[in-house]
Amino acid sequence: MSEQERNIWTIACYTGPRHGELCALAWEDVDLVRDELRVARNLAKEGFRVPKTKSGERVITLLQPAIDALKRQREVSYLRMPDNVTVQTREKNKTRVAGCSCLA
After folding, report:
1. What average pLDDT does the chain have?
2. Which of 21, 37, 82, 84 is deepest in the core (most CB within 10 A)?
């Protein structure tokens, strides 16, 4: 297992996001000053979407193993240029564009 795979698995285990939420995480969602991770998107078959319900948008307090994994991962992927992704909102046929710097 690579260091990057180990980091992502550690983040997944210590933060508990759904599969699509984990795939949609970006550095813009990470706050290592406050030790928080914001869940704002989900990656589904149709593309990026906001969580189905407002309560699905949440902030997760990071535990130390996740913080350590994010710091290691930052050395690998933090300086990547953000990609603009189209995110489907809860309103039918409404989208927004978000800049995302992928964690992995």
Report:
1. 89
2. 37
